[in-house]
Amino acid sequence: MRWVWYAFGGRLPQRHREWVLHDVTCRTWVLRHLSRALVQVSPGALFLLVPGPLWVRVMSVLGGVLIALWYSLAYMEHTCEHRLFKHGYPLGTGRETREEAKAEERARSAARYAALYRNTGTE
């Protein structure tokens, strides 16, 4: 039940602060964000119960879900930063944490690139 509250933008108790940081900075943070967005738009499925042709109701709900996901993706980073801010972290913490996690992989990629494509001076 707390997760649903959290998915709709609610603040969790202080003891879950570290989990929130993990939630918005882990490897699967984009999928987690999309799952929260889908939970937020799920009440829109009630429009399927409105009288009218089925195809109109289904296309209306589908259109609403697609637009909601589009906006959710467009503001994903800002939303996650605000979520962290509500839990006591300074703004920018999410981005910094994700960048730190990727730093090692980027260094390895740069080293592989340099080894393959840079002239090492040994001709």
Short description:
By secondary structure, the chain is mainly α. It has helices spanning 2-7, 17-25, 29-41, 54-74, 76-86, 93-117.
Shape: flat
The average pLDDT value, as a whole number, equals: 92
Low-confidence stretches: none
Residues in β-strands, percent: under 5%
Task: Characterize the quaternary organization of these chains.
Answer: single chain
Task: Please estimate the helix content.
Answer: 55-70%
Kindly describe this structure.
The chain has 6 helices and no strands. The longest helix has 25 residues, at 93-117. The model has no long low-confidence stretch (mean pLDDT 92). The N and C termini lie far apart (66 Å). The chain is mainly α. The chain is flat, with a radius of gyration of 21 Å. It has helices spanning 2-7, 17-25, 29-41, 54-74, 76-86, 93-117.
List the helices and strands and how they pair.
Elements lengths: L1 H6 L9 H9 L3 H13 L12 H21 L1 H11 L6 H25 L6
Descriptors:
123 residues; mainly alpha; 6 helices
